[in-house]
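Severity: low
Component: inverse-folding endpoint
Summary: output formatting inconsistent between runs
Steps to reproduce: submit the following structure tokens with default settings.
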């Protein structure tokens, strides 16, 4: 009887998840270093941080500089970017912005970034625009 109740509970929880959530971890293909360079270097990306909804912008220049803006607080920072062999886009900021590395993958109709290459890592940023 306990097994039937547990199975019913698990089935109810699984059906409550959005269809893409169950497949999200297995569907991810993180970009390579060359793909990150092609898609983002020389472009401005606008993103939204999932933890607090803050909106930001990174202007990633071909000379290794990045110009960042927190569009929610009007803060600005500059720094340097690198791309690791595994495709991680790493930012080292001069000001108070937190340094970090981000792995990028396609999530539906937009790009998403995580802080690790773990297939089940939570999404940290969603890019809402790349120009």
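Observed output (run 2 of 3):
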């Amino acid at each position: 009887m306990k097994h039937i109740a547990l199975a019913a509970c698990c089935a109810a929880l699984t059906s409550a998840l959005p269809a893409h959530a169950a497949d999200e971890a297995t569907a991810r293909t993180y970009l390579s270093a060359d793909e990150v360079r092609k898609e983002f270097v020389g472009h401005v990306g606008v993103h939204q941080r999932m933890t607090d909804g803050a909106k930001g912008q990174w202007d990633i220049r071909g000379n290794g500089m990045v110009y960042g803006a927190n569009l929610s607080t009007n803060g600005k920072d500059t720094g340097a970017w690198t791309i690791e062999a595994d495709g991680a886009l790493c930012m080292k900021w001069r000001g108070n912005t937190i340094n970090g590395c981000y792995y990028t993958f396609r999530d539906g109709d937009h790009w998403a970034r995580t802080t690790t290459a773990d297939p089940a890592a939570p999404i940290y940023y969603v890019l809402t625009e790349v120009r």
